[in-house]
Design brief:
mainly alpha, two-stranded antiparallel sheet, 2 domains
Length: 344
């Protein structure tokens, strides 16, 4: 009898390897000694999660959002003027030979309570104050940029705080059970009541305004990031564990990429919230510039010039819409680059 017949096949030959525990994709990762970089390639070429749209679809979504917002603004303008046409003050434009007496009379539709949109637009070209050369439009553009800078700082700080808190909560069930209820309860306090307290604690100025904007930003980012970090493909997590990847590697290569669509959804909500927080904080915060201060000033002059206050309100709304579209454009760009960076 030959030596092979006496001793049997060498270890590992002629045996059917198990396909259960310890094997991923029909291979034994420990026996194959495949480096972790190849695992990264496997994860990079894996199909996208079902909840993530292709980058081209997100660009189309951005275009649809712009078109939808434009149609909404047009519809709002038609409703605005239609309401005045039916229940406002008489329309007298002798220069074009048009006079109209509305069939109804409602106080909220008068020219003082609800000016015509063209009166508001014409006020933007008038001096912001008597005997001043600066127009109201130029003044409001400067105020909007100042408010946006404050909101941008609070937006960035709140996004970082929300992502850090979500990362801690996902990796520690104890911290999640201990602090998530307080994170949720923090949003039950009205921001109008909280703003003066923040101003008293941190003083009047930029810091108080940024804290208020941060307060309205961190919560949606925290909740959405927790959902996103927990939505990783279990197969990808199992693959990373089979290669003895550290928690940081799993977080950076699996959990964080999976959370990107969720985080951007929260950032779009937080973008408008940061604008609201900055405007609210500028009043008690004593900021000399910004839309919040402009709203306070023009509110005191409402009787003599209601168009100025309405113009400030419309600019504030447009600023929030613009910030939302900026975040949505960044989302489409980042996800497009991430998709094109994948092999194949």
């Amino acid at each position: 009898m030959s030596d092979v017949a006496r001793t049997g096949p060498p270890p590992g030959e002629g045996e059917t390897p198990p396909t259960g525990e310890g094997r991923v994709g029909g291979r034994d990762p420990i026996a194959s000694a495949e480096p972790l970089a190849e695992a990264d390639l496997t994860l990079a070429t894996a199909p996208e999660p079902s909840g993530e749209r292709p980058a081209s679809g997100r660009w189309r979504g951005l275009v649809r959002a712009v078109v939808a917002l434009t149609l909404f603004l047009v519809l709002a303008a038609l409703v605005w003027e239609g309401f005045k046409f039916l229940a406002g003050d008489p329309w007298r434009y002798p220069e074009i030979g048009f006079v109209h007496h509305p069939p109804f009379r409602i106080l909220q539709a008068t020219d003082r309570q609800l000016p015509h949109l063209w009166d508001i637009a014409s006020a933007l070209a008038q001096p912001v104050q008597r005997n001043q050369q600066e127009t109201l439009g130029g003044f409001l553009v400067g105020a909007a940029l100042y408010t946006w800078q404050e909101a941008l700082i609070g937006f960035a700080v709140g996004a970082v705080i929300g992502l850090v808190l979500a990362s801690l909560f996902v990796h520690s069930r104890l911290l999640e059970r201990a602090f998530v209820p307080y994170v949720i309860a923090s949003q039950t306090i009205p921001i109008v009541a909280l703003a003066p307290i923040i101003v008293v604690g941190f003083g009047r100025g930029l810091i108080a305004v940024v804290i208020i904007a941060t307060y309205l930003t961190f919560f949606p980012v925290t909740i959405a990031a927790m959902r996103g970090l927990s939505s990783s493909d279990p197969r990808a997590l199992e693959l990373m564990r089979s290669y003895a990847a550290s928690k940081w590697q799993v977080y950076r290569k699996v959990r964080l990429p999976a959370s990107v669509p969720y985080v951007f959804t929260a950032l779009k909500v937080a973008a408008t919230g940061s604008i609201v927080g900055a405007i609210i904080g500028e009043g008690p915060g004593g900021v000399p510039a910004g839309l919040g201060r402009a709203i306070d000033n023009f509110n005191q002059q409402y009787i003599s010039g209601p168009e100025k206050l309405w113009a400030t309100i419309l600019v504030s709304a447009l600023l929030g819409i613009a910030f939302y579209l900026i975040v949505q454009a960044a989302e489409a760009l980042i996800l497009r680059r991430r998709r094109t960076a994948r092999p194949g």
